[in-house]
Amino acid sequence: MKRNFKKLIYTFGLSVALLSLDSCTNLDEQIYDQLVTNNYYNNRQEVLSAVLRPYTHANAWVTPGQDGWWRLSEYSADQLAWPVKGRHGQDGGKWIRLHYHTWTPDEASIQQAWNLMFWGMGLCTDPIENLERRTASDMGITEEERLAYIGELKLLRAFHYLKIMDLWGNVPIVTQVGIPLNPATASREEVFNFIEREILENIQHVPVLSDQMVGRMSQAGGYAMLVELYLNAEVWTGTPRWQDCIAAADRLINGDAGGQNGTVALDPNITDAFKPDNDLSKEVLFAIAYEFQRSNTQPQWTGDFFYFNQRAITGGARDGNNGTVVIPGVYATFPDADLRKSEWLLYGPQFRFDDPTEPVLGRNDEYQGQPVVFVDNIRRNLEAIQNGTDPELLPSNMTTGEGTSGVRFNKYKLGHLEHPHYNSTDWNIYRLTWIYFAKAEALMRQNGGTATAEAVDLINASKMRAYESEDWADYQYSTANLTLDELLAERGREFIFEGFRRQDLIRFGRFHTDAWWDHEPTDITKTLFPVPNVQRALNPNLDQNPGYN
């Protein structure tokens, strides 16, 4: 059963005592001198431990909760922020600098993301080397399995490189642990070509997606990576690859790469891909998998998203750091008839899960003991009320929040304590809806920015799930009203919280040119993050990105 297999990712993945492998790019101190693998890889369980270890680590940087790809991608964009709320949220000013694009090469959060992501890449490279130099019989597996594991790990390493390239652009390409000692920076185009080659050479060696591959890299994950590569190819290499994007998307849409629950398809409801048993979703293509009931692993994103007293709202056992809010004005971009507005976002008075007639009371902030009401603004409303002044006249910026400022996250559901899969909600990396949007955009770009009938059908197939049938006629798209600007806006509504907003804004030329809330336009050099100075001190062959010297 797939639930049992999800457990294997953590029980096997955590059982291997692999050390931190930042040394695979020699970007940190020597840390590989104690690990001896000659006495490892002797049976199937040891092999699986090494193969699955990178998946447990990916949770650290792919999802919210630590300074990794997700945080850098979303808190620098135009939908989410982590403002100061009273006495909470300063955190050395890192959220403020991400929001205003004032980060520097000495930024600890950028250094941490670099470390986590290159570490994860090393956790793929080490078992690749070990599997390639051993025979299948010596490891107690078949040759078919050996090749499949190598292919899976090379695809997963390519995924790490894709996201590293997304953030930093120009980085070293390393395929052996510790060799070369001080790798030189490769251009973004060279990294792009390496990723593409690794995917194309290995995608047929891995299984198609099935219920046995939930949470693992399959052919579906490989084709989804190709879609992302080709969708962003013009930004990343200077050469558009729209037709290649369409072709890769069609492999997924047509079901050639399998599905985790039979034939891949859009889920009928907007909640199916985000609920506690979302491994039953038909549209998820690749995800970070959790199985709290069997392996005691749980999502880490509650710290970023949940209020101090969130358990009273959800009926669960987890609270958060009262961090992430939706930037003022984003909530209003969802029409009231849009079911995503009420289902994926928390706004207004909050009531107890165990008694919906009773308000949730504030905790650890200005609203201690008072009803919690999430508002679509970031200002000190309570202070104004106490002073008898108009809250509308108050300043609103990253330093002026209070405990209940901002509309909140409600997209992924952990469930309540009695739910049989409570706290086991998988975090989606790619889902079929995202593929539909990518193909639609590629079709429009090929057509000079004008929507084709096929592009409209693709977006409407997704969007219609967010409306009752009686409302749909007023909100469906046509070739007349689905412009590129409207496509970007609809991407914002559909993929809010999913990590792609920075990438989208860059592709549409809006990341450094647009203003949002209190954020002013910045410089095009901010479309890449700086290579951390700490890493450049350790490896003199690392080049700095433009604008940071």
User: How do the helices and strands follow one another from N- to C-terminus?
Assistant: HHHEHHHHHHHHEHHHEHEEEHEEHHHHHH
* Molecular shape: globular
CATH architect. name of the largest domain: Alpha Horseshoe
Question: What oligomeric state is this?
Answer: single chain
Number of domains: 3
Q: Enumerate the strands of the largest sheet in spatial order, edge to edge or round the barrel.
A: 1-3
Helix content: 40-55%
Unreliable spans: 14-35
CATH level 3 topology of the largest domain: Serine Threonine Protein Phosphatase 5, Tetratricopeptide repeat
Provide the gyration radius in Å: 23 Å
Strand segment count: 8
Mean pLDDT rating = 94
Structural class: mainly alpha
| Main pleated sheet | 2 strands, antiparallel
- What is the top-level CATH class of the largest domain? Mainly Alpha
* Relative strand content: under 5%
Distance between the termini: 53 Å
Main location: membrane
Subcellular location: Cell outer membrane
InterPro entries: SusD_RagB_dom (IPR012944), TPR-like_helical_dom_sf (IPR011990)
Pfam families: SusD_RagB (PF07980)
